[in-house]
Amino acid sequence: SKRYSITLLPGDGIGPEVISVAKNVLNLAASIDGIEFKYEEVPIGGAALDLTGLPLPDETLLSAKQSDAVLLGAIGGYKWDKNEKHLKPENGLLKLREGLKVFANLRPATVLPQLVDASTLKREVAEGVDLMVVRELTGGIYFGKPRGFGTNENGEEIGFNTEVYAAYEIDRIARVAFETARKRKGKLCSVDKANVLEASMLWRKRIMEIALEYPDVELSHMYVDNAAMQLIRDPKQFDTIVTNNIFGDILSDEASMITGSIGMLPSASLGESGPGLFEPIHGSAPDIAGQDKANPLATVLSAAMLLKYGLGEEKAAKRIEDAVLDTLNRGFRTGDIYSTGTKLVGCKEMGEEVLKSVDSQVPSP
Ligand code: NAD
Ligand code: IPM
Ligand code: MN
Questions:
Q1: What is the pLDDT of residues 130-157, one digit of tens each?
Q2: What per-residue confidence (pLDDT) applies to 365?
Q3: Radius of gyration of the chain (CA)
Q4: 362 pLDDT band (50/70/90 cuts)?
Q5: Where are the alpha helices (DSSP H) in 291-339?
Q6: Is 12 a catalytic residue?
Q7: Side-chain half-sphere of 8: how many Cα atoms within 13 Å?
Q8: Measured from the CA of 252, which atom of ligand 2 is nearest?
């Protein structure tokens, strides 16, 4: 039997709740193929701050680097919101992405037929949406220098950040995006603000340059403000979207709502080599944490992406995706995706139902 080592990072808020569900689903789905996991559960974010004084302890990064894949819940919470920058939970996550060099963040947004009524968009707009946001994850304004606080010429307090991209950073995310589009419907839309920002002007130039390597992919460009509007007007026009770190952050949350809930969207963060990082796109949801209300499916689907993109175990990944669909077909819904006529369940019960759906796929002897 195959063995993989997984670093588990439950984190804060609903993180531990959704990770507990995803871990059980991952175990059962993979065991059917004789796959076993060795887990190392280590702290990150606020949990790590409370334990060690740092949001990303050295041991946590080391464990992640030495693993075959990393599964993360979420980080952050009111308790640490006033911490100085390097002692914020969010900084632990950014350092982890940087440390693992996972520059390509794949965020699929698929409207499942079972959840069309959970979307806030009209049925005819939402139905059939299937898009992929390829978000650059280790550059741009999140990491650019100079950054900090200071005073301006009037002695007034200022805060500043820098949006900066080097050509190589754009080229490598462009290649991931073109490859992704090629395996999908062959359409790529690059989203930027090239009418205003130099970093976006270079972005567009490099995307056009790399496009020469992919003549089979149909490339278009869109300004981010228009893209935000078009996503709601007619989301089906999009297949694959490639964009920078901050635009990708915002547009993927927006895209999640087409599908019904941010509680449904998984993600995979990949580098040139080494372990990938898999996490839901949502945060620690402090408003519902500890109440067994969180939708665990984004994390469960992130576990499926871990199997597919992280370990190449496509059969086990498909089994999880099928189990999620089966659970939805059987009518189970957490509050965020509830609609009349369906069965309202909590996080734990949703997990148990997904396990039953995985179990029902075990080939009978
Ligand atoms: P959030 O994604 O945590 O929550 C936004 C809203 O969506 C909330 O109403 C929440 O209840 C709901 N929601 C989110 N996930 C859900 C789920 N699985 N099921 C049901 N409802 C869900 O965003 P926020 O409130 O802006 O941020 C809260 C904290 O999370 C902050 O500290 C923020 O920095 C952090 N955060 C972390 C990550 C991450 O770990 N990757 C991502 C985003 C935000
Ligand atoms: C996300 C989050 C993070 C981001 C924060 C918590 C650093 O919003 O994973 O989408 O902005 O990348
Ligand atoms: Mn985000």
A1: 999 999 999 999 999 999 999 999 999 9
A2: 67
A3: 20
A4: confident
A5: 297-305, 314-329
A6: no
A7: 21
A8: 10
Pairing of strands 240-243, 130-136: parallel
Give the integer Cα–Cα distance in Å for 339 and 326: 17
Which ligand 1 atom minimizes the distance to the CA of 285?
3
- Does ligand 1 have an atom closer than 6 angstroms to the CB of 274? no
Neighbour count for residue 65 (Cβ, 10 Å) = 15
Residue 1: pLDDT over 90: no
Cβ neighbours of 52 (radius 10 Å): 14
Cβ contacts of residue 71 below 8 Å, gap of 6+? 6, 7, 8, 9, 19, 22, 23, 26, 278, 279, 299, 302, 303, 306
Question: From the CB of 232, is ligand 2 less than 6 Å away?
Answer: no
Determine what percent of the chain falls in helix, strand and coil, rounding each to the nearest 5: 45, 20, 35
Cβ within 8 Å of residue 344, ≥6 positions away: 333, 334, 335, 338
**Catalytically annotated residue among 12, 192, 239, 249:** 249
Choose among 234, 275, 263, 278: nearest CA to 334: 263
Provide the ipTM.
0.98
142 is catalytic: yes
Instruction: Judge whether 300 and 334 are in contact, CB under 8 Å.
Output: no
In sequence order, the β-bridge partners of residue 278 are 71, 268
The answer to whether 205 and 165 are in contact (CB under 8 A) is no
Q: What is the dihedral of CA 358, 257, 235, 343, to 10 degrees?
A: 50
Instruction: Please give the structure tokens belonging to residue 269.
Output: 């963060």
Alpha-carbon distance of 247 to 140, in angstroms, equals: 10
d(CA 327, CA 358): 9
**Element housing 177 (H / E):** helix 167-183
